[in-house]
Amino acid sequence: MSPAINSSSPESPTATTTPTYYEKGSVELAVETPVMMKRLEKRRTLTGGSKDAERLLIVLVGLPARGKSFIARKLLNYLVWRGNQCRIFNVGKYRRQQQVNDEQDDDNNLNNNSKQDANFFDDTNATAAKLRQEAAEMALKETLQWLEGSAGLPLISDLQDCSNVSFSFRTNSGASSAAEDDSSTSTGNSYYENAIPGHISHSQRRQFHRIAIFDATNSTKERRQWILQECAKADKVYQKRTGVLFLESICDDQELLQENFKVKISSCPDFDGMTEEAALMDLQSRIAKYEARYETMDDHRQSFIKIFNLSSRLMVNHIYGRLAKVVLPAIMAWNTGSRPIFLCRAGETEAMQTYMQQQQQQNEQRQQQLDKFESLVDNRIHRKRSDRLGERGRCFRDALCGFVEQEGMAFMKRQNENAATKTRINIPGKMDTGTSISGLYEEEDHPFEHQSCVSDQNDADLPFPCLVMSSTMPRAVETATWKPHRFPVKDVSNLNPLDMGDFTGMDLASIRQQHPEWYEQLKRDPFHTRFPGGESYSDLIDRCHSILIDVEQQLGLTVVISHVSILQVLVSYFRSTPIHECMDIEIPMHTAMKFVPLRGGGWHESQHALLPDGDVLEQTTNTEGGPLGDEPIWGDSRSCLPRRLSSTNDLNSSE
């Protein structure tokens, strides 16, 4: 028998170093050597040390009809939904407004330059070049002023469409201060006195960015350098750091370009009054003039993102900071597909059904005791997270299954019809699919009609690709489980209802009676006020972010089954409504909310009630100004979330 080997003996270094090396690498503590310090210095500069830039300017770069405005609108909606103040500054808009002003000026003689056709963008046209530069200067000036937050600034961009409307969180700093003063003088067993900081309202601690999107071709190095110089000047004037990110859209997919050309000439004001043929010729002539002087992003000292063929490929250079982790996944997820997205609540449960029967029996008594709510407290529903579907909930599940099957088959039919009539560019052996999942594929082995909707599912029995997502609540998982077609259900806790923490199961009347100071804070700032040990509505944004990315990147049908609070946050994104007003969004029971993408980057919404006998819950909703309902707040016992709180109206119970 060979002697035992001492693993710590110097005679057997292999016995100790080899496993450690392959499993863990070096076990020495990491230190910043001079070489590492030098390499990390650039990263420290880009991330701003301990904090990111206070303002961010996203500069779009690209030839006309490359989807820059589409990307700008998607960015605007997404960043506003994330809670930032965001605005688009479109240089073309300033240029057109300048043209209107010049035409009204009798003393100004532009000869034929007032017509902004392709010749207007010719560098040999000195007068037009000067006007283009003036429009860019005005746009950038107002962009930097807006980033500073100059009050009362009359912006030219306010005179036209609403694409530049910015929304921001309501911070209610005065209300928060008043709440703090109240807490310092309150007495008794108030939870408000002993609350951990951050469990009341975190609107003052939450950081919001001010982000401007500078939408123009910015096609030369000289123009981009000028933008950087103007930002540097503004930094000195305002004593605030401005981060600059260049976002270049490159498109060399000829089929995609032809689609973009059609969208461009049908919606851009520059082509009003032209025939389609004349507009297309003018656009192509304009693009040729830009191509003659176009310079792509290649300065690796600058921060930039290159998007190829609308997100089929990305190149990222020097992108760090908090915004990078949310902007990059979104850009990678966006696509130009036409797939429908369905949002709906989990079906009615047995406990809810029993509760509604009790409420119907007590309806007359309830109307007579509007001011005696305490007598009804004992009858309130006690929601359990393990509640299962009741009879109506199971009916909704079956109806939802049939509805999704019908929609899915119609979607596949449209996809196959489009594939059959689509003219493909003949590239021997390989085919460039632009925004497809695979990028390149063998034409012989993968016919286009089967490539239009690629499913990640391996089950050949499924009739069409469909991603079904639900919360982990049993009632939601049960709603998503369909016997005819067992699509894989992705149940994620991020779709669970808002966590009420210590107040779970309590109704508003009990909260108001036991914790009046906290309740007053909730009335002042319902979006940011966090439930003790739980969440606030603003916390749900971070929770829903990964869900939204999953939904956006799908090419086939997507069904999301969740609960009112979560669905309100998601619907706010698809409707482009201010996120701090999401509590006002009604989420009807037993109804599928369908969202279909628009070419411009928005969404078309339709609602489909799937139970023919209507929603009993909606018939029991309290009217505005009436008494508080006796259901739990932000559960699933009501058809919609509370309306905006005020000094005279109580918060209605919800979900």
TrEMBL record:
Residues 1-21, 99-120, 172-191, 617-655 are annotated as: Disordered. Gene3D superfamilies: P-loop containing nucleotide triphosphate hydrolases (3.40.50.300), Phosphoglycerate mutase-like (3.40.50.1240). Residues 7-20, 109-119, 173-188 have a biased composition (Low complexity). Keywords: ATP-binding, Nucleotide-binding. GO terms for molecular function: 6-phosphofructo-2-kinase activity; ATP binding; fructose-2,6-bisphosphate 2-phosphatase activity. The keyword ATP-binding applies. One of its GO terms (biological process) is fructose metabolic process. Residues 48-151, 210-332 form the 6-phosphofructo-2-kinase domain. SUPFAM superfamilies: P-loop containing nucleoside triphosphate hydrolases, Phosphoglycerate mutase-like. Residues 645-655 have a biased composition (Polar residues). One of its GO terms (cellular component) is cytosol. This is Phosphofructo-2-kinase/fructose-2,6-bisphosphatas e. It comes from Seminavis robusta.
